Amino acid sequence: MTASEVRSLFAVASRPEVVSLAGGMPNISGLPLDVVGSLVNDLVAKRGMTALQYGSGQGDPTLREHICDVMRPVGIVAHPDDVTVTVGSQQALDLVTRIFIDPGDVILAEAPSYVGALGTFRSYQASVVHVEMDDHGLVPERLSAAIEAVRAAGKPIKFLYTIPSYHNPAGVSMTAARRAEVLEICRRADVLIIEDDPYGLLGFDGEVPRAIRADDAEQVIYLGSFSKTFAPGLRVGWALAPHAVREKLVLAAENSVLCPPAFSQLTVSEYLANHDWMAQVKDFRETYRERRDAMLEALDDLMPAGAHWTRPTGGFYVWLTLPEGIDAKAMLPRAVTSRVAYVPGTAFFADGFGSRSMRLSYCYPTPERIREGVRRLAQVIEQEMELRATFGAWGAAQRPGLDAPAPDQS
Question: Could you tell me the CA-to-CA distances from 201 to 75, 227, 284 in Å, in that order?
Fold first, then answer.
């Protein structure tokens, strides 16, 4: 196990003078805290003996019914018996990996891919083979080629890990045609798909992408979370899996945490039952759309020639590629000195690639802070370009600056 580059940034990025475009913290300021506080008060008063007690290893039955309702907008029709509630979708990812992976097994994953997934895969000693993406998501031809190459090398492929909707970190979405093609490729090759979908309801054009799981209940394990559409502090997620896999998930969950926290589950369940949660999601979408627009406008206005970036239609992130010869990880200490933070692209690859790229998050800062952060970042990039033009790559690498941020920096 190794420290996440995202986690290592938190101590530095949380300083008030630093504009953090790094972390993917949802903006929960729009939550009706009076409503949440009231339902929590009622929950303890009326159902405290249940909410504060141990519960089922699979999760509260009523919450599992609500989760089936939450999945309907993405096209999924499911039975509550096939849902396993987890401590965030991160635990669901950990449990799935624990069930399927032996050391040396291959996991196919998009390039770039979610840093939390890569850390989990690494901890179980999986071999990650990246598959190329473009502005329309995972490239099916590259997926077919990767499967053939891994099989030719005699290695077992356990599953494909994908975030098809509003990708973290790339900010792109897989088209409907590609989703169908990817599903068919995996069917033919008998490769399981792990579909991670924390952002699926957070699109900006009003259309909810259809989940891959909606078209195949046996080939796909679907992971979901309330962290982006309600509150991350409650740590409630889920896995929707075929029956045989679900049984193993419950056993693995019981071995890990005995049961997911009943209090968090019942809080989410009461919220879904007694509040217009879809209207709340709509409010979140409008907030994130405004901030996405602020970031794209600032990038268009301020970034130097040679830089390019994705234009997300939902979710939290923009993926920016720097001009030729600029290393995002080497530049990070100088950026922090200039009071702006981002996540270098190397965090999102298992093979060391991504040095020219970075993930920028627009979900948490205000539009004004986003514009200021992009302004500071553009200045740092221009300084790096000038330094490289004057001294070459060695001079840029030797430029003095802060040490790389570490978790214990204050």
Answer: 11, 12, 10
